């Protein structure tokens, strides 16, 4: 354990952060490497490799995995870690800057309807925007996508290649939440309800607008909007304890946020926040303002969080109810302990791995599954040592 100075509600405060040391056992390909943690030694094994900037994964039956690569490829990974050829039928993406083929999610009724959802950067005019498509996954020796339909396209000033957001979470009612970035150069638009920049939207699986969305019927607002005042949310998940939507977004230099998302609420970007511009200039009016929500956790300096998973399985009983997120700049896996809507502690894991962690999922096997974001990206499986 180490005592660090962290920002809490605008005040520099001493806090305890658990930083787990690594106990390197082996680096052989396919063999586990062991790291320390509050739950005991962890084995980190390469499940699949040779992926170019993998961005998201989803689980399929029989131990297989669906994975996206940012340049525009999607593959099925066998239970033994073998990569399929790239799936045909994937929509054309704009693989520039932070854009490309990003999130993938299977429908909650996938076993019956074989439906998946994709979020990606789409080129239009002289820039890019976030788009969402649905498709049917046709399995077999040469898996492919059929009946591909674009169900949503982001409206507003275009991106030059940055801040697409692009995480998907499906609610119990089947409706889809999708995070949409502010396109970096248009941050003030996050407060403008007349477009989709810096928003989280809620749409039906066919792209239509649910009638109970908070801004339905308002002439000055896009009816898809669920919440606004976001920067670049690359983590979105439903808390299984209470079906509450949670989001984690990138700040600039500092000010990454964990938020509980409520319908119609304003999360403040860029009016309030805890970071500064990359130039060192001031961005925010203050750290709080009436009518704008406070994060339940923020990081200064930034760790660049991406992907998130609530842990509910039995493989790590000490971590039941924890929230996990990856870190790109921080090159680690972060575990947040929770008590209701409060973050009660933070543990920094796998630091010696020295990898940009793009996505985090809880697998059907109870393991933690991670994606490493680089040109030789991997799918990693994290289990208790010896499992």
TrEMBL record:
A Pfam family matched by this chain, by name?
GSDH
The segment(s) forming the Glucose/Sorbosone dehydrogenase domain are 52-381
SUPFAM superfamilies xrefs: Soluble quinoprotein glucose dehydrogenase
Q: What range does the record give for the signal peptide?
A: none
| PANTHER family in alphabetical order | ALDOSE SUGAR DEHYDROGENASE YLII, HEDGEHOG-INTERACTING PROTEIN
Q: What is this protein called?
A: Glucose/arabinose dehydrogenase, beta-propeller fold
Q: Which organism is it from?
A: Rhodopseudomonas pseudopalustris
